[in-house]
Amino acid sequence: MLRSLSVLGLAGTVLAREITFPPVSGVQHILADDGGLVPGGDISAAMYSGLLTFANLPYVHCLAADGTEVEKYDIAIVGAPFDTGVTARPGARFGPTGIREGSRRISPEFSWSVYTGRNHFREWAKIVDCGDAPLTVLDNTIALKQLDKTHRVISGRKGNDSEYAVPRIITLGGDHTTTLPALRSTYDHWGAVSVIHFDSHLDTWDPDVLGGGLSHYAGVNHGTFLHIAHEEGLILNSSIHAGIRAPVANKKYDLKHDRACGFHIIKARDLDRLGVQGVVDRLKERTTGTRVYISVDIDVLDPAYAPATGTAEPGGFTTRELLTILDGLSGMEVIGADVVEVAPIYDNPGETTTLAAAEVVRSLLSLMVDTPVKGKL
């Protein structure tokens, strides 16, 4: 019996069909005629395979220990996997991974814009992915201090372009609390900035209101971080919200307090009256002459376009409207940015939210490349 099986096995080997590979294609894996890799062929940048980085950008260990030589960069992508400051659905700790997955179709080699004819990945700035900040999931206070240090280290390295020595950072959230450490970092290098805040919620709530006055710990969350940033002197009184539509807790106090924190408001339905260009003009007028930090809560989009978020509010912008508004801000001195509140567990099989978030990050990168900014080391 054993002899018969071995003969059958041999026969199977002899009769196996020989596989013939098609001619080599320039957009697929590089293969030789014998099915092996072409000597010297580099398939490390093949899309949908290998380690996951934003837009298939090179990974740099930006958080390497002191004394370690680190490759220089001008713009850094960093993930902030933090979601224990939310008041609704959790899940945004997986946002950085989700946004990177949504960017898999993007590559620096295949990014010439049909609108502008430019490829911002191939201009002066060296853009890299630094991975995620190492954050504890058990203590918000410690996690935010870890994120503070992450921003200090990454922004504290010298840029690749010697004329623009301070690298700029785009943060992948994480819930919106993660913007506070980013603003602390930008203040160190550029001073107080105007914040353009795309969101359906104000996020300037008094910690005694949204934290309930229970503790300092409870008062630091994704709805109070702009109040705290104002309190710390990180932002200018020329800041502005866009896309606001969520209800407030107190019809007089919340809006008055928001103005005291330095913000004007463009409500979501104002887009119907002003048009996209009108919104762009309002944002530019409000922040003119200042350096700008752009924070995009993905819930500024209508849930039809971004269901994967913790506090969804119907009646928001479309993805196309948001991207057009962002592209219209070209010329601003954008010194930092983020895309937050992406919670992939609530997305649909088409990855609607993560695809939109990835495209928003690409627009933010373009704004930074369009206008280099000098900062102090």
Question: Nutshell version of this structure?
Answer:
This protein has 377 residues and is an alpha/beta fold.
Please explain how this structure is put together.
The structure is a single chain. The protein is an alpha/beta fold and 377 residues long. The protein has one domain: Ureohydrolase domain (Arginase, Chain A). The protein has 11 helices and 8 strands. It is globular and about 80 Å long. About 3% of the residues have low confidence.
| Name of the CATH homologous superfamily | Ureohydrolase domain
- Tell me the structural class: alpha/beta
Number of helices: 11
Task: Summarize the amount of helix as a percent range.
Answer: 25-40%
Largest sheet data: 8 strands, parallel
Radius of gyration: 24 Å
Number of strands: 8
